[in-house]
Amino acid sequence: MDAKPKAAGKSSIDLIDQDLAFDNIMVGSRATYLDLGSGAGNYTLALARRLGAGSLVYALDLWEDGIVALAEAAREEGLGNVKPMVADLSQPLDLASGSVDAAFMATVLHDLPEAARSGLMGEVARVLVPGGVFALIEFKKFAHGPGPSSPDKRIGPEDADRLTAPHGFVRDAVVDLGEFTYLARFLRK
């Protein structure tokens, strides 16, 4: 993989209804969270600010400069509940099985090679507690607006169902987050 992944440094956080998104990601103020493909951490920081002191947010990304920037921003804000880690999402995650209460991925999955997606979903299932939440924020399947230029390269809720179901996930909600984005929330059996 490239040292700077595709779309590194971009964020969709300004395109979403943040309160609605985090209401569907959060499972408790003292829980452990995982931001997959965090980049420089716009979503990570926004979540960490909403959580209690007993929480933890792992932020994983292959882009080392983004992880360094996230660590610095968290330190400057006094957010001791953020743990940034350089990680290749196409490889096994360096987290213990059943160590995460909720995981999320915000407009990143469409950029991962298709061959790596099933393995990542298996890893998400492994690190989540039974009943844990996986929230996927993606671009709607439009031929316009931000995100992939072709609707065929976008991941809709049904595409996400096909990817997550073999790993023991059941979709329990689809939430419209704005003009261009949605959130699909899955529960791990």
Automatic annotation (TrEMBL):
Key word Nucleus present: no
Residues in Methyltransferase domain copies: 34-132
CDD domains the record matches: AdoMet_MTases
Xref: InterPro entries: Methyltransf_25, Methyltransf_Superfamily, SAM-dependent_MTases_sf
Pfam families found in the cross-reference section: Methyltransf_25
Superkingdom per UniProt: Bacteria
Keywords (A to Z) from UniProt: Methyltransferase, Transferase
A GO molecular-function annotation: methyltransferase activity
Gene Ontology process terms (BP): methylation
Name of the featured protein: Class I SAM-dependent methyltransferase
